[in-house]
Amino acid sequence: LQRLVHASIILQIVVKYLSKNKQFQRMTSLTRRCWRNLLKTARTPQQQGALLRHLTATVRAEDQMLLIKEQLQQPNSMIFPSIWLRDNCQCAQCFHRDSLSRKPLRWNNFDTKVKVRQVTVDEPRQLVNILWSDEHCSSFPLKWLKDRDFSLKTREQYLSEWYRPQSKHWGKDDFVKVLKKFDYWDVMRSDAVLMEWLQTLAVHGIAMLKNSPLDIGVVKSLANRIGFIRKTTYG
């Protein structure tokens, strides 16, 4: 018992000495702040699980609008008409990877009344997966959806990036100055002339080709010069 009394007295002296030490006081204060922060940020397992689910997707039953939200970065949801997503399904059955366009076979058999049966998210792979009422499955990467978000800002950015250069309006008084003439054979043989011709069409909407042959198939040859020809509903 006497030893315990002596130990208690010594401990009190040490604590009293340390309490006057500024470095010890700073360490004690820092430790207390750390514990307070830990208590503030501590969450239940349910809360922690919810925080891990950053990507969410739901369907409004009344209008079949798909709401996609990335909680960490977006205060608002991205909204897509479900029929638009079905029409733009990116699977090999619906989408032509080489021409980056929808397959024509779907246009005659497209069900405009198709609905979303189930929507899930694959957080690690950043995918939104949709099971449709016709048993078809679609997967959309989050980046693909962000690039095509229907918000005004995203639409303006998408148009500026994919439809450059910007078109210029002109009237009848400007027609003579706007109209540029190109030689057919120059367009067929020179990539630089081809580019200039296409840019003129994109900016002014009109460009004249001269000295083209009068043979059958000339238009097809010119189209092949521009890009890969595919059969579409437009002809």
Automatic annotation (TrEMBL):
Coiled coil (UniProt feature): none
- Which GO-annotated molecular functions does the record name? dioxygenase activity; metal ion binding
Name this protein carries in UniProt: Gamma-butyrobetaine dioxygenase
User: What cofactor does its activity depend on?
Assistant: Fe(2+)
Query: What keywords are annotated for this sequence in UniProt?
Result: Dioxygenase, Iron, Metal-binding, Oxidoreductase
List the Gene3D superfamilies hit by this protein, alphabetically: 3.30.2020.30, Clavaminate synthase-like
Pfam families reported in the protein's UniProt record: GBBH-like_N
Q: Which family does it belong to?
A: Belongs to the gamma-BBH/TMLD family.
User: Gamma-butyrobetaine hydroxylase-like N-terminal domain location, by residue?
Assistant: 76-145
Q: Which organism is it from?
A: Bactrocera latifrons
User: Per its UniProt record, what InterPro entries does this chain match?
Assistant: GBBH-like_N, GBBH-like_N_sf, TauD-like_sf
Q: What is the lineage of its organism?
A: Eukaryota, Metazoa, Ecdysozoa, Arthropoda, Hexapoda
